[in-house]
Amino acid sequence: MKGMSKVIGIGFLGLGIVGSQVLSYIKENKDYVEEVYGMEFLTKSVYVRDITKKRDVDTSDIYLTTDVTKIVENPNVQVCIECMGGAGMEETYDAVMGAIHNGKHIVMSSKKCLAVYGTKIIEAANQYNVQLRFEASVGGCIPICRSLMQMSKGDEVTKIYGIVNATSTYILSAMESKKITFDEALQQAKEKGFAENNSSEDILGFDTLNKMRILLRLGMKVDVDCNDVNPVSIENINDESTNREEPIIRQVFYAEKTMQDDINCFVGPQILKSDSMLKNVSENYNMIFVESKHSGLRAYYGKGAGGRETASVMFDDLIDVVQSNYRFEEIKPIGCNCLSGDTFEL
């Protein structure tokens, strides 16, 4: 099919660890994409904050710029891949909306931006008839967003819960298995690349809260105000708690619809039941359960962190946005009741 391939212009918004891995993925799979899909992904330009910075991927044939408008307003770019990472949430939001307003399909990774502005971004994508995907924002390599987008069309999701933060999971499981302190486990997580230098949002539960909000938009079509949920930190869990054979403690999220048409939510450390499947989640793995009215309980499991793993789902999203014509359903604001961990069992 070479010679007949449709050229798709790609623009990157950010080229850090994840962005570099996605660009490498595109380069490595060039022949495969042409052969199977009849397309050629051609990276036209990349927005970065420092052009002179040394990178892990060859950019010698790519236009680098510190002006984001050179990407979002480029008529030769059909898809923008957002990997802005450490950039401010507002800056990310402005760049994404600029791309949407200029008719670009979007593949996103910034979960905090999606958690806060996700409803506005989804509405804009529908309005401007562009495709939006953000699989990399929750669950690492687990295709949970794609599953919820399809599942909830013919079923009513009533409950979503699980473990979605690799940093906290590594810390707690290392404290259990290696009999080490919280600080020692955190340091190991950083050395293995499962934790940022500043891991406060992971430890305090805000990262998990952000991911829960994204999943609720897709699964239940609701927007929960984060001010209604008070995450519980794992920082006060000591080695005495984790040195026992039982119980096993993990940072979890839990959300269920109520008969009053609102949501019961919890984010924080939870003592797991002796027969809980979540007890098997350790190191950098995630596990998410979705319960629906007709299909019952489903489980999703996989690596929740890692540059290569994240890049793989963003590459899948890239193929999806140029082939699909998905339209998001209306998302409604909803009240939330903040639970305590002793009011439910997992």
From TrEMBL:
The active site is at residue 211. Its EC number is 1.1.1.3. Pathway: Amino-acid biosynthesis; L-methionine biosynthesis via de novo pathway; L-homoserine from L-aspartate: step 3/3; Amino-acid biosynthesis; L-threonine biosynthesis; L-threonine from L-aspartate: step 3/5. L-homoserine binds at residue 196. NADPH binds at residue 111. NCBIfam families: PRK06349.1. Residues 14-135 form the Aspartate/homoserine dehydrogenase NAD-binding domain. Belongs to the homoserine dehydrogenase family. This is Homoserine dehydrogenase.
